[in-house]
Amino acid sequence: MILYSNIIGEGKPFIILHGFLGMGDNWKTLAKQFSEENFEVHLVDQRNHGRSFHSNEFDYELMAEDLKTYCKTNNLEDIVLLGHSMGGKTAMLFAAKYPEMVSKLIVADISPRYYPIHHDAILEGLSSLDFSEIKTRGEADKALSNYVHEVGTRMFLLKNLYWVEKGQLGLRINLDSLKENVSEVGEALPIHAIFEKDTLFLRGYRSEYIAEADKALIHRHFPNSRIITISNAGHWLHAENPKEFYDAVMNFL
């Protein structure tokens, strides 16, 4: 099955992969800016997210193969590949497996290392949403606030809401599969995975996802990489400081 995407602009192919519980549309504003620099930007929904297909199977090997199938179907070669968080892990693995398909790699706020499960409260909150009772986004937000206290995080999560039919809300994500396979999200990049072309790692100044101790591991997997810190930003660095993020990406490209 082919991943869903929103394609903006014309030019050199530039694929963006969202993070866990996100979707390609989260990147629409930046995609429009990139498209103005002669890039054909593909905002891709990864499996079990957004409008892409649902599957009981979910891991990085599968997501890398999903991306390969997407590229082959759309005749995409020599791509620029950007991935955030979970999407960054997919992007790292894809680039290491298929380096001939990637010209430059950009990884946003994720390291190749293992991360312990830390989405428990979010997944519990999403699971608690009873759409036989909840009829508005406001009601969904109020219910979710019992589990997720940070307003920005709730707004991000509630972008997954959609109208299944008139008067009936639902979630686009395949919540059951994501809960079942959540341990896969933190898996480390395989020890043998190496990508030798130009790579940019961007980290949020307030984020702990890329620590100082990760630098040696990053350079082991990506010997031609550099790491840049985005100021006034946490894990959602592209949304919290989009101008500095955009400038760093364009300077690299």
Quick recap of the structure?
This protein has 253 residues and is of the alpha/beta class. It has helices at 28-35, 60-73, 86-97, 120-128, 137-144, 151-157, 175-180, 215-221, 237-240, 242-252, and strands at 5-8, 12-17, 39-44, 79-84, 102-108, 161-165, 168-171, 199-204, 225-230.
Structure description:
The protein is an alpha/beta fold and 253 residues long. 34% of the residues lie in helices and 20% in strands. The protein has ten helices and nine strands. It has helices spanning 28-35, 60-73, 86-97, 120-128, 137-144, 151-157, 175-180, 215-221, 237-240, 242-252, and strands spanning 5-8, 12-17, 39-44, 79-84, 102-108, 161-165, 168-171, 199-204, 225-230. A seven-stranded mixed sheet has the order 1-3-2-4-5-8-9, with helices on both faces. A two-stranded antiparallel sheet has the order 6-7. Helix 3 (86-97) links the parallel strand 4 (79-84) and strand 5. The protein is globular, with a radius of gyration of 18 Å. The two termini are 31 Å apart.
